Amino acid sequence: MIIGILKEPIDEARVALLPEAVKTLISWKVSVWVENNAGSSAYASDELYKEAGAEIHQRAEILQQSDLLLGIQAIAEDEIAKMKPSGVLMGQLNALFNPELTNYLVKEKRTAFSMELVPRTTRAQAMDVLSSMATVSGYKAVLMAADLLPRFFPMFMTAAGSITPSRVLILGAGVAGLQAIATARRLGASVFAFDVRQAAKEEVLSLGAKFVDVEGATEDKGAGGYAVEQSAEYLQKQKDTIHEHAMKADVIITTAQIPGRKAPQLVEERTVRAMKPGSVIIDLAASSGGNCALSQPDQTVEVNGVRIVGVGNLAANMPQDASKMYGKNYLNFLKLIIKDGNLNLNFEDDIVAGTCVCHDGKPVNSRIVQMLN
Ligand code: NAD
Predict the structure, then answer these.
(1) Ligand 1 pocket check: which of 116, 120, 283 to mutate, most ligand atoms within 8 Å of Cβ?
(2) Is 0.90 exceeded by the ipTM?
(3) Which tens digit of pLDDT belongs to each residue from 17-68?
(4) Is 193 in the pocket of ligand 1 (CB under 6 A)?
(5) CA distance 255 to 236
(6) What residue segments make up the domains of the chain, in order of their start?
């Protein structure tokens, strides 16, 4: 069985598997073919892949020969068409939000897995790329803010006077938000955080941050630990509370998302205009609608001296460890579908079925089935 690893598009510095993960895969009695220069942006040379036991090939050969094609970003339809009919495609295909690609895969009777569909259950935690990439983004967002801020994060008592610590407000205390809290605390900032889920409060406090309470949030125990949409009345109350805290903040990092929906707007234009000049907002939800009314995906906007950075794929800014985590998630998932050096797809397994977009053209994941109906 041949497992192929392609070079990602030009704006994606990560690679699906680093050489160390390839070495593990090869010990499972499979062949690994890597496109030349696939790991260069993550500082993994072709030589390192060869030392790990992989073969270096041209892209066209890998597309044609692979039994399983591993990637991060989805490849184009004309490249999928070059894969052999039994070849399985795997990546972060964004299948629920890319109906054109999903329909194409179904029409062409393909088998495809989409890593963002991995069920968010305890057993699947070690395969959850959304969580591992959110960890990278939360960390990197704080470093980005610290770099842009014209002030120190920590408190200093110096001969040249005292510096008070910066005040950081984190909106959304999920995986990315908690990592942002921990990183901002390590840099010595005074951190405040807010989330609609009461379960987040304890985690926020345990990291040494203060929790901003807004009473009256709607929670749904059936939402698997995720947030649900809030009433217009609650959202307004929340925006008012955020407004009060934002005026005192030096940095706001927003991470609030609701699976399958537009991100909630938490920071209004009047709030940005009321903030101190020099303050920085990093909006991690910019690509799903933005938590700040003024953020633009992949752009930095300045309003009254407040810089609002709309970040998309922040994980690609730290390609080495992001690829390492991605590869580990992949290996944990592949353990479920590779037996004795061959593909063995057991759809009785909820993780395999939940992650599968379609098998031989038949939709498998229940939300994909629903979407196509
Ligand atoms: P996410 O990226 O969907 O959302 C980020 C955060 O935004 C969440 O904490 C959410 O509550 C918050 N949010 C949504 N609307 C908001 C609003 N109006 N105001 C403020 N905050 C708002 O979520 P995530 O970080 O991927 O995960 C959230 C939680 O899900 C985790 O903390 C964890 O409890 C659970 N989870 C479980 C697993 C697993 O078991 N495998 C994996 C990942 C996450």
Answers:
(1) 120
(2) yes
(3) 999 999 999 999 999 999 999 999 999 999 999 999 999 999 999 999 999 9
(4) no
(5) 18
(6) 2-121+319-365, 133-317
